[in-house]
Automatic annotation (TrEMBL):
Keywords: Cobalamin biosynthesis, Methyltransferase, S-adenosyl-L-methionine, Transferase. One of its GO terms (molecular function) is precorrin-6A synthase (deacetylating) activity. Pfam families: TP_methylase. SUPFAM superfamilies: Tetrapyrrole methylase (SSF53790). Residues 3-224 form the Tetrapyrrole methylase domain. This is Precorrin-6A synthase (Deacetylating).
Length: 254
């Protein structure tokens, strides 16, 4: 039986690797990496640097494949994501079937935590449901960008006896979540926080968290929003991509 480790590698800082993750890396023979293009080559480079550090004798193989493009222009978001995940599943199925022998151990190095807004677990389940390739897998949790964000801002996710919600920019644009005043937002390509600058809200924002390119901004949303928009535009133009996360903290009496 083939074995797959799904390893959370943290939000960008190599020191985010847990001891469990390091043990799983050292027990892996084949690592599967998806090439996201030249713009995001530093993400692949960071993964390879982790392998070099923790398996210095080079007793492993890295198998790379091109990540399929997702249709980002369509208004039919969910079907587009489903199609993209299925095409990813085709690639993963081929890699596992052709590059991993029975009895060997492979791994996917997942940015952040595999359980939070990542497709790997769902894709592996889809492959198993197809029934053409057999394997078992386990999940090694990682430090998510959410945990890293609040740590870098020296704040907590929630306030005493209060809930916190994690959502997406797409959802936030449809309205501030009901019954919640502390909201973490991920995958926000359109800066949906700008819809709420008229409210009494604090923002803790971060981009490229845990990397040398890290950018942090916090303060009243009305004051911070223009600065974040400016920094975000500059960073995206410089690197060609951006990964950012933020916490909105609304004053219930505001």
């Amino acid at each position: 039986m083939r074995t797959i480790h799904v390893i959370g590698i943290g939000a960008g800082d190599p020191d985010h690797l847990t001891l469990q993750a390091i043990k799983a890396i050292k027990a892996t023979e084949v690592f599967f990496l998806l090439d996201k293009g030249e713009e995001k080559s530093d993400l692949t480079g960071l993964r390879k640097a982790m392998l070099d550090e923790h398996i210095p004798d080079g007793s492993y193989r890295v198998v790379e494949a091109r990540d399929p493009a997702r249709d980002r222009k369509t208004d039919n978001y969910a079907p587009a994501v489903d199609d993209w995940r299925s095409r990813r599943a085709d690639i993963y199925e081929r890699l596992i079937g052709e590059e991993l022998d029975d009895g060997q151990t492979g791994a996917f190095l997942v940015w952040g935590d595999p359980a939070l807004y990542d497709s790997t677990l769902g894709i592996l389940e889809e492959i198993l449901e197809r029934g053409r390739v057999e394997f078992s897998y386990d999940v090694i949790p990682g430090i998510s960008s959410v945990s890293a964000l609040v740590a870098r801002h020296r704040t907590g996710l929630n306030r005493v006896a209060r809930p916190v919600q994690i959502t997406t920019g797409r959802r936030l644009a449809q309205g501030f979540p009901e019954g919640v005043d502390d909201v973490v937002v991920m995958l926000d390509a359109h800066q949906s926080f700008t819809h709420y600058t008229d409210q009494d809200i604090e923002i803790h924002w971060g981009a490229y968290i845990g990397t040398p390119d890290e950018i942090l901004v916090s303060g009243p949303l009305a004051e911070a929003a223009p600065r974040i928009a400016e920094l975000r535009a500059e960073a995206r133009a410089r690197k060609g991509w951006i990964m950012d996360t933020y916490l909105l903290r609304r004053n219930p009496g505001g």
